[in-house]
Amino acid sequence: MKNNKVIKIEHIWCEQNDRWIYLEYNDQNKIIGMNFMQGDEYDVFKYECAENDRRLMEFYDTMLYTFPIVYGDTMTFINKVMWTYISVDQIRAKY
Questions:
Q1: Which of 35, 57, 73, 76 has fewest C-beta within 10 Å?
Q2: Cα 55–61–65 angle (5° rounding)?
Q3: How far apart (Å, rounded) are the C-alpha atoms in residues 63 and 83?
């Protein structure tokens, strides 16, 4: 049984990738929800992106299962997942 009760929410500014990241955590400090917005407009981010994007979260879970984080920084992995997610959406839009 999955523990999907949100215990903690973070809004993280990632200057290197020019994006705001929204993360939800459960009581085991596992990420159970995420979203993001490119750009630094925090007010827009709070009102339009501060909620779980289920498609992105499913994509993240798949990437985490396929390419587990053994060593390294979780935020680096999250940003790579988000860049890949954007690329996949752009490819999908072409067809």
A1: 73
A2: 145
A3: 12
- Measured from the Cβ of residue 64, the count of other Cβ atoms closer than 10 Å reads 15
What is the rounded CA–CA span in Å between residue 27 and residue 44?
28
Q: In which order are the strands placed within the sheet that holds 31-38?
A: 8-14, 19-25, 31-38
Segment 1-54, tens digit of pLDDT: 577 899 999 999 999 999 999 999 999 999 999 999 999 999 999 999 999 999
Beta strands in 1-95 (DSSP E): 8-14, 19-25, 31-38
Using CA atoms, how far apart are residues 11 and 46, in angstroms rounded to an integer?
9
